[in-house]
């Protein structure tokens, strides 16, 4: 599973940088300041959690198991729901997409909680 988490970390990092650059250079004149900030927030959280997935990959080498996989799964789900909904909201203007964002935030929180449990259990 370590390979999966490392691949997801690389994919999230790559696309996070690409989308951040796209926002800074390609969307600057096309989106209003509010929507540009929303898009950049999505990119910011994606990049932070790409690093978290990298940490999960390292943990999977030292302490493989269900909890480490749950941690990685929650971080990946958080990126998809939180960042993905913010990208969609900023690009489409469909406010209903903002209803998905908190579920991504809850996934992030669950991932961090699981990481704390992992830290507690590692000897």
UniProtKB/TrEMBL annotation:
Keyword Transmembrane: yes
Cell compartment(s), UniProt: Membrane
InterPro entries per record: DUF423 (IPR006696)
Topology within the bilayer: Multi-pass membrane protein
Domain of life of the organism encoding this protein: Bacteria
UniProt main location, coarse: membrane
Pfam families recorded: DUF423
Family: Belongs to the UPF0382 family.
Protein name as it appears in the record: DUF423 domain-containing protein
């Amino acid at each position: 599973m370590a390979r999966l988490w490392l691949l997801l970390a690389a994919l999230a990092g790559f696309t996070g940088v690409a989308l951040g650059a796209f926002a800074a250079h390609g969307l600057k004149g096309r989106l209003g300041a509010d929507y540009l900030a929303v898009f950049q927030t999505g990119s910011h959280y994606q990049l932070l959690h790409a690093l978290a997935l990298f940490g999960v990959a390292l943990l999977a080498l030292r302490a493989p198991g269900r909890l480490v996989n749950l941690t990685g799964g929650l971080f990946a789900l958080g990126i998809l729901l939180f960042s993905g909904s913010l990208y969609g909201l900023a690009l489409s203007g469909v406010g209903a997409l903002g209803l998905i964002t908190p579920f991504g935030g809850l996934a992030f929180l669950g991932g961090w909680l699981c990481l704390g449990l992992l830290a507690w259990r590692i000897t």
